[in-house]
Amino acid sequence: MHTKLKNKYCYFCVNNVDEIDYKNWQQLQRFTSSYGKIVPKRRSGACSKHQRKLSQGIKRARFMAFLPYISK
Description:
Elements: H1 11-14, H2 25-29, H3 41-44, H4 48-63
């Protein structure tokens, strides 16, 4: 039996966020799994444009040691 999927809206489009800042690690942490991996687009609900910016921001935050590369 098919389950009805809930429509997800892009967090960044809804809140009119233009730039994803790597220094705002609390916001970026919402889009990582408990293991520190970047959450896929289908789970995060982000549009393609913001998913690309989001992954770039997470990678920059990891490099600057705001976010861990791995956890657990």
